[in-house]
């Protein structure tokens, strides 16, 4: 009798996910995808009122959601909050900072602001969640939103590119370190995504024309384009994936 292989499960029932940057854009989409797949989702961002609003709507859908207000640039407080509320089986970090200037015009304050969130905050947040899993002897999936700009350069984006290239580096090193303990570490690297935060860029006809020319599929991404990859990396469907950079760029980096 032929034995057919079993399709891996995308079901997240019984999993506890921490989603940082959960009140808008990619983070909100990620929280929705994880909750709809059965995960208990802890929504995190800096503003408690926004978290309460989003969590309330999710609970109305019949999903499991609670909140954890924190600022990942405060490394000590973040580590304590994660320790007190974990362990988390899944980390989905979409917190990000961008200050776009020509490289000759980047100030130390601009550079530090970008690095504090995109690199330092992401690094120590990932470390904190991993520590909880290691102490509990549990496997896990840790995901950071990087960017297509972690693979290519971009005008006015030297500091941003530097921060995202660095995220790719620590992802690979952490994946090597924690792989034997079944903790997977990956990034998602989107192209330009239509969100309230990016609306000013898309409202500029020249910038929108440039973006749509560079994206081979001819359109910017929507939040929904990212959600499937979030679910894939969070679930057993990606059990053999770690240290990887998952591009969702519509072909931007293909040439």
Task: Provide structural commentary.
It is a single chain. With 255 residues, this protein is an alpha/beta fold. It has a single domain, classed as Rossmann fold. 44% of the residues lie in helices and 15% in strands. The chain is built from eight helices and seven strands. The protein has a seven-stranded parallel beta sheet, sandwiched between helices. The radius of gyration is 18 Å and the shape is globular. The termini are far apart. The mean pLDDT is 96.
Can you tag this structure with a few keywords?
single chain, 255 residues, alpha/beta, Rossmann fold, 7-stranded parallel sheet, 8 helices, 7 strands, globular
Topology:
Blueprint: E1 16-20, H1 25-36, E2 40-45, H2 48-60, E3 65-69, H3 75-85, E4 90-93, H4 108-136, E5 140-145, H5 158-178, E6 183-190, H6 199-203, H7 205-214, H8 223-234, E7 245-248
Parallel strand pairs: 1-2, 1-4, 2-3, 4-5, 5-6, 6-7
Helix pairs in contact: 1-8, 3-4, 4-5
In short:
This protein is of the alpha/beta class. It has one domain (16-195, 222-254): Rossmann fold, CATH 3.40.50.720. 44% of the residues lie in helices and 15% in strands.
């Amino acid at each position: 009798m032929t034995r057919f292989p079993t399709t891996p499960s995308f079901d997240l029932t019984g999993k506890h996910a921490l989603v940082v940057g959960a009140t808008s854009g990619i983070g909100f989409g990620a929280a929705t995808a994880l909750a709809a797949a059965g995960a208990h989702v802890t929504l995190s961002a800096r503003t408690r009122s926004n978290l309460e609003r989003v969590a309330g709507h999710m609970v109305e859908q019949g999903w499991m959601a609670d909140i954890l207000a924190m600022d990942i640039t405060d490394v000590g407080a973040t580590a304590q909050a994660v320790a007190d509320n974990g362990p988390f089986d899944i980390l989905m970090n979409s917190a990000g900072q961008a200050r776009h200037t020509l490289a000759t015009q980047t100030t130390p304050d601009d550079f530090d602001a970008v690095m504090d969130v995109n690199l330092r905050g992401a690094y120590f947040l990932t470390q904190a969640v991993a520590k909880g899993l290691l102490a509990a002897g549990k496997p896990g999936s840790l995901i950071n939103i990087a960017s297509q700009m972690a693979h290519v350069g971009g005008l006015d984006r030297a500091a941003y590119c530097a921060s995202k290239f660095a995220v790719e580096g620590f992802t690979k090193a952490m994946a090597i370190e924690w792989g034997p303990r079944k903790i997977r570490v990956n990034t998602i690297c989107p192209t330009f995504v239509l969100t309230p935060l990016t609306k000013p860029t898309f409202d500029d006809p020249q910038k929108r024309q440039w973006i749509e020319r560079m994206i081979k599929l001819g359109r910017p991404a929507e939040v929904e384009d990212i959600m499937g990859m979030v679910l894939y990396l969070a679930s057993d469907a990606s059990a053999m994936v770690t240290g990887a950079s998952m591009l969702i760029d519509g072909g931007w980096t293909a040439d």
